[in-house]
Amino acid sequence: MHALETVVVVGVLVLVGSLLARWVRLPPPLVLLALGTVVGFLPGIGAVEMPPDVVLFLFLPALLYWESLTISLRQIRADLRVISLMSVGLVLATAGTVAVVGHALGLSWPMAFVLGAVLAPTDATAIATVAGLLPRRARTLLRAESLVNDGTALVVFGVAVGVAVGTLDVGPGGVAWRLVGSYAGGIAVGLALAFAVTELRRRLTDVRLENVVGVLTPFVAYLPAELLHASGVVAVVTCGLTLTQIATRVISPAARVQAAGFWSLTTFLLNGSLFVLVGLELHAVVAGRTAAEVWTGVVATLWVALTVAGTRLVWGNTLPFVIRALDRRPAQRLRRVGFRGRLPGQWAGFRGAVSLAAALAVPSTTADGGPLEGRDLLLMVTFGVIVVLLVVQGLTLPAVIRFSRLQPDPAEAQEELLAQREALGAAQAALDVRAAELGVPEAVVARVREAHEARERQLHLTQVLSDGRVTDPDHRAVKKAMLAEAESERRLRLALLGDKRDAVVRLRDLHAIDDLVLRRVMAQLDAEEVRLVGVQPEE
Q: Around Cβ 268, how many Cβ atoms within 10 Å?
């Protein structure tokens, strides 16, 4: 297919697959992968091949950037040690164990380490689809690991490929120095760009230009870092995390609202497209292979998939005891998690498009022009492991989460309520001063104060309803009645919004108002509905 036809087909499959996933109640990545695989074998479509650079230089920076903007830096700081050991230590351990198995299956040691590096990192795209099922700490650990481990794996991958094709001769010490330099360079580029972007956006007043800068930021972070032989992944993540801390005071509210809508839709499309493209790639991976070669690839896939999943389980159940033995502080003891609590994070070790892109980027010839032995097997095993882990772990992860009995984080809701009450209190305290500065009439001030007081009563009610310490039967009855009353009011307000919309649309249809006026009023009603419904978690 031509490029435009491919874009249309992938877009349609993302739409159909997402709807189908909701209907059959299966994880969207599985359904999208299956659709892509089926369509990939249809006549005229099976020639689709995903250029590795499309994933590494287009999809990856955008997805990592939005993930870094929507993750908790405070939680990352609190669990930095665990995240570092998972995103660096586990990647190296997985690369090593997979290399041993790959060598036993017939690959040379250099190609075995290439396979290990390809399959070492988890996939941020797949992780994002299940992170919403987990409480805050478990969700942050999983997402933070998937943000950074690509940087580690790609450094190991570059070294292993260089050795395999005969253009590089480096030992373990050289790999360690490359890792340190890659991370240090990526952090430096990310910090420098974050401050440059902040200063630029401080001077912009056009919302569209502000968001043009926002769209370019991940790519401007990634490309220079890669050209400097640093980690583009680390540069993008560092830049995003830094901007969450220093740019909120300089980015206009209108730009933030526009950016949130843009990135939410864009990352949804990119995520879905990656799984579809991985499915479409199966035809290219198996085309021209004999039955014996395919069977060899299937057997190798099962062994390697077992190794990848087993390494993660062993690491996840060994590392905590090492930490406990070395760190006996009371604060550390309070953060301990049992086997059940750790299991969902250990089981969510999906691999995805980054692994496949890296495998496709392996050269087909060596430095002297000869064929690179083992590349075909590496491609088949990589694709097979991606599919096996997505199917097995994706289908069983909900049951694993239920088995783990993870409790929701009550502090998250309490912190949000605290922020709302503090903001309202600040507005109330400054009301008279601001009104005097602006010369606002007393009648207007009274109306605003009344609205603030009503909102304050609502927040107080929410606080009472969220207090789980009420044990007295009478208090429980009062709490239940208050909850029912609040829910009735919310439902009534939501129902009335429909009547408001109908009235405004009727005015437009009668040519009493313009479409531009309609859109502005609808935007206000939509904002009110969002406040009443609340922000729904992403699936």
A: 16
